[in-house]
Amino acid sequence: MADTVLFEFLHTEIVAELWAHDPDPGPGGQKMSLSVLEGMGFRVGQALGERLPRETLAFREELDVLKFLCKDLWVAVFQKQMDSLRTNHQGTYVLQDNSFPLLLPMASGLQYLEEAPKFLAFTCGLLRGALCTLGIESVVTASVAALPICKFQVVIPKS
Amino acid sequence: MADTVLFEFLHTEIVAELWAHDPDPGPGGQKMSLSVLEGMGFRVGQALGERLPRETLAFREELDVLKFLCKDLWVAVFQKQMDSLRTNHQGTYVLQDNSFPLLLPMASGLQYLEEAPKFLAFTCGLLRGALCTLGIESVVTASVAALPICKFQVVIPKS
């Protein structure tokens, strides 16, 4: 039971620690902390990607890889599936989680929206890292219009 | 499956991050990073302590609280129980894990022993934090004589 919350507690501590010791609390410092978080997420995502069962992925489409992340990766990390996945069929995917666990501890007032990015950077990295392990280079960003709904946008450049 | 390793991956990243960005790689800097890790562990331990089932703890002895940590807390975090618990019956407890999961990724050579403390600080804090939530102030240290065997010493000052 506790390992469900263990990741969330630890993530909260990492965010708090990075912001507490940030040498530059301005936009530049914030950018560095976000980048550090994204990098940690990337490496954890890479490692997780190697351990998730991938037999069923062979010879499948890009869309199937994204579905796999929305289901298997999300369940492994957050004990729930992503709520929706949309695509323009040109390499852009929007993954929506209607109650993103890392945003749940925040009150849902609009005044907390500006705090949201620091709770999303790790997970953007996680998605990018898992995709990288699965052989797909991507750019992952996240946005929040209303807490705790979160949209992750995955853009896969055509090679 | 993956959340078993998720905590370990994330812990590894935190250690790497703290040591990579340590402003002072000397003994003073190392001490600060260890203290940061211990503090993160403490707060996670406090939070976990609040969520573990404690009904059975009411009106019990200090030793029972320690047994609870060796069993319930350890299983929640590491999916295994502590291997042994000894006490001098004067407030000192030695908890031994014969294959401590956070040390397992390290090769078992003697040359890695000096690297061990950075992989123990978080867990020392975790024990101290959980004990604190359970109403017991303590000092927790850890030592490794041969990888991956780890001893945690919990000293509870008599009030």
From TrEMBL, chains A, B:
GO terms for biological process: endoplasmic reticulum to Golgi vesicle-mediated transport. GO terms for cellular component: cis-Golgi network; endoplasmic reticulum; trans-Golgi network; TRAPP complex. The keyword Repeat does not apply. The keyword Endoplasmic reticulum applies. Transmembrane segments: none annotated. Pfam families: TRAPP. Keywords: Endoplasmic reticulum, ER-Golgi transport, Golgi apparatus, Phosphoprotein, Transport. It comes from the Eukaryota. It is found in: Endoplasmic reticulum; Golgi apparatus, cis-Golgi network. Part of the multisubunit transport protein particle (TRAPP) complex. Heterodimer with TRAPPC3. The heterodimer TRAPPC3-TRAPPC6A interacts with TRAPPC2L. Interacts with TRAPPC2L. Belongs to the TRAPP small subunits family. BET3 subfamily. May play a role in vesicular transport during the biogenesis of melanosomes. This is Trafficking protein particle complex subunit 6A. The lineage of its organism: Eukaryota, Metazoa, Chordata, Craniata, Vertebrata. The gene is TRAPPC6A.
